[in-house]
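Module 6 notes. Inverse folding takes a fixed backbone as the condition and produces residue identities as the prediction. Think of it as a translation problem where the source language is geometry and the target language is the twenty amino acids. Below is one complete input and output pair. Work through it position by position during the lab.
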């Protein structure tokens, strides 16, 4: 499983999503399962160590009182209120007048749209039984087509696709703003599936049962109204379901608190409760392992700690593993991924044991992965008989195939991987065979898709290749290391033209939720930024997962400023190397990355010539009361605890704003339909800035969810707006 997908060890039941990571608009597919996330790098340049760097210190601020009672902009938290929406529309009009009519904006928007709609994109697929499933959006199908084909057809340049759901036609027929959110199949037969559709791109879904054999929604089938639901198949006529059953059925974070067993043909109200969590929990979910028939309940007590239970009858029996470990069960194997050390096993390790031996009390695990100071576990995926294990060494991924046998586990490298390139598992079917699909690309290397079969030395087939979306001639990729304030070496990637003078540079990062930023191909960024002479930089700061749990835990709660010191050190290092200057350096980030860029704007304004903040957290005094914010207190802390608010307020950009500061030009964007990070964060931050007398550009997409956009037209528009702003300020 990809660790960045969710906080549950079972993708089929996951309901807790991390804050937005990575870059919108990458050439990747949306399928019935979560796509492998990540980006990657191709370069033969060796790392360069910085012997000494002076990291700038945060600017002093005259902070206002940080209580709720004196916040004059609370009214902007009314998401769809007439006043706040009118406020947003007025700002949109002004921002569009400044950038939307410019030739550069129009040109960039057209180029990005061409990349997003290109027919020569790789249609990434998910294997489910005999079929390969794909979700496809283009100019003719902006909402998308859910379709399938066979491997034989997929090998053709133009496969014969069988369209199962035309989301555009469905939206027209039902007069609803449907956005595709995926499908969950009944395994291992795949005779039924549950379709998730969102109104306008929000996290909340409407769930409907679909028959892939009849290619139609099931009359009187399982249907759930709009909610942040958790649903898992028990058998063809029974589900585990967590949803909004009314008062008290959801947690403070807005996710299911109850799990019920729902039988076909009975009203949802008659579903039988099998487990209850606490309102302070993040969520509760349940699922059945199709191979063993075992039933599990997951109670997430915070973002990184959860109780796991094996249901025997209706009695939950605790699974004796650390609360902060991740687990999964497949083909009789129990995998345990450690965030902290346990007994003789080190943090960051991946352990395996026969599940029945574990239930009998045995604790002698085989260690499938153990990190060192330079390495980390990235993800793992099962085929029917093999485990695909992806790891990082100094943010360079590799992939091994592990297979159990009488003498233990054997390990084989998946393929010969060129230096500074990366592979990721695009699809497996853990119940039918050992085929796996690998996606390969780099910053300057267009994507390709390969097919392998575990245990077959003769396998290895290129299924698809994407053409280049921009001219990379004269460009290079390098990895450097900056030195942060406490002496820690921080890796970062530099992509762009070979240069003999400072150039406009765009720096991005994330630094949260143990999510690594690994490089990859982004055709839209390539055309809008790199091909126009800009340099692109990705900073692998603490808080992420580039070096495993220790890298993440180094920036948790009171240690959060380490992430911002790391990012500032990279910005300073770029200038000291002559790659750019402060006046030519732009920064962009979304969600937790928006909190990062908000802190760059308020604490390190002297380092940047322009800042873009997207779908951000900014008011850290109230974040835990807004939408899913309560689920992130394990990351940031509890503002209602006075001792914790003392350190939280030091990285709350809304409360760090002050008069007479040298703030750089700023663009803030968000989405009205974002029901994960409340748009009030962005609105209030902008209103406060304007009250202090600073100019700021603001745009709020009325739909799009936490990704900021729900179709290619909106994605191209939002990205073009950011690039037009950056070129106007840095070019």
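Target side of the pair, the amino acids:
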């Amino acid at each position: 499983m990809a660790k960045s997908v969710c906080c549950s060890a079972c993708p089929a039941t996951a309901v807790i999503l991390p804050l937005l990571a990575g870059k919108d608009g990458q050439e990747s597919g949306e399928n019935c399962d979560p796509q492998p996330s990540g980006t990657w790098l191709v370069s033969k340049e060796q790392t360069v160590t910085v012997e000494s760097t002076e990291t700038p210190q945060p600017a002093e601020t005259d902070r206002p009182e940080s209580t709720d009672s004196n916040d004059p902009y609370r009214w902007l938290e009314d998401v769809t209120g007439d006043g706040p929406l009118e406020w947003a529309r007025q700002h949109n009009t002004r921002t569009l007048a400044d950038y939307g009519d410019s030739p550069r904006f129009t040109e960039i928007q057209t180029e990005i749209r061409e990349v997003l709609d290109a027919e020569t994109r790789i249609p990434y697929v998910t294997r489910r039984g005999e079929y390969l499933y794909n979700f496809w959006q283009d100019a003719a199908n902006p909402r998308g087509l859910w379709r399938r084909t066979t491997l034989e057809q997929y090998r053709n340049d133009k496969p014969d696709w069988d369209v199962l759901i035309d989301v555009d036609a469905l939206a027209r027929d039902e007069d609803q703003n449907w956005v595709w959110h995926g499908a969950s199949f009944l395994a291992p037969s795949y005779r039924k599936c549950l379709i998730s559709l969102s109104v306008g791109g929000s996290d909340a879904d409407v769930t409907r049962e679909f028959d892939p054999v009849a290619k139609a929604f099931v009359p009187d089938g399982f249907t759930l109204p709009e909610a942040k639901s958790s649903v898992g198949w028990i058998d063809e006529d029974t589900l585990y379901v967590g949803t909004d059953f009314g008062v008290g059925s959801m947690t403070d974070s807005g996710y299911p608190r109850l799990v019920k067993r729902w039988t076909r043909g009975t009203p949802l109200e008659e579903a039988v409760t099998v487990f209850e969590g606490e309102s302070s929990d993040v969520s509760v979910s349940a699922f059945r392992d199709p191979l063993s028939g075992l039933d599990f309940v997951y109670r997430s007590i915070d973002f990184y700690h959860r109780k796991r239970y094996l249901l025997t009858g209706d009695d939950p029996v605790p699974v004796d593993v650390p609360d902060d470990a991740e687990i999964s069960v497949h083909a009789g194997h129990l995998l345990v991924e450690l965030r902290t050390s346990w007994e003789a096993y080190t943090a960051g390790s991946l352990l395996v044991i026969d599940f029945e031996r574990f239930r009998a009390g045995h604790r002698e695990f085989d260690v499938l992965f153990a990190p060192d100071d330079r390495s980390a576990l990235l993800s793992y995926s099962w085929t029917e008989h093999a485990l695909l294990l992806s790891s990082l060494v100094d943010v360079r991924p590799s992939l091994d195939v592990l297979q159990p046998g009488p003498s233990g586990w054997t390990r084989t490298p998946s393929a010969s991987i060129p230096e500074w390139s990366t592979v990721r598992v695009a699809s497996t079917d853990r119940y039918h065979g050992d085929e796996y699909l690998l996606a390969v690309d780099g910053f300057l290397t267009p994507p390709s898709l390969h097919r392998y079969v575990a245990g077959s030395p003769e396998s290895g087939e290129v299924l698809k290749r994407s053409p280049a979306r921009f001219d990379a001639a004269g460009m290079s990729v390098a990895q450097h290391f900056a030195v942060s304030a406490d002496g820690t070496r921080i890796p970062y990637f530099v992509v762009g033209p070979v240069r003999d003078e400072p150039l406009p540079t765009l720096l991005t990062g994330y630094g949260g939720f143990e999510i690594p930023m690994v490089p990859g191909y982004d055709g839209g960024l390539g055309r809008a930024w790199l091909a126009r002479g800009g340099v692109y930089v990705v900073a692998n700061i603490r808080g992420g997962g580039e070096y495993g749990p220790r890298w993440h835990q180094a920036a948790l709660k009171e240690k959060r400023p380490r992430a911002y010191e790391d990012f500032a050190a990279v910005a300073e290092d770029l200038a000291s190397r002559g790659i750019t200057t402060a006046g030519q350096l732009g920064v962009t980030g979304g969600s937790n990355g928006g909190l990062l860029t908000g802190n760059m704007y308020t604490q390190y304004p002297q380092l940047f010539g322009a800042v873009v903040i997207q779908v951000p957290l900014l008011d850290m005094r109230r974040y835990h009361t807004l939408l899913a914010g309560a689920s992130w207190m394990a990351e940031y802390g509890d503002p209602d605890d006075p001792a914790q608010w003392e350190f939280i307020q030091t990285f709350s950009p809304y409360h760090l704003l002050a008069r007479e500061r040298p703030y750089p030009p700023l663009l803030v964007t968000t989405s009205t339909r974002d029901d994960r990070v409340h748009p009030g964060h962005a609105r209030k931050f902008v209103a406060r800035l304007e009250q202090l007398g600073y100019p700021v550009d603001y745009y709020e997409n009325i739909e799009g969810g936490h990704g900021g956009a729900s179709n290619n037209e909106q994605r191209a528009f939002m990205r073009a707006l950011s690039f037009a702003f950056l070129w106007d300020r840095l070019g």
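Reference fact for the lab report: The domain at 1-31+124-319 is CATH 2.130.10.120 (Methylamine Dehydrogenase; Chain H).
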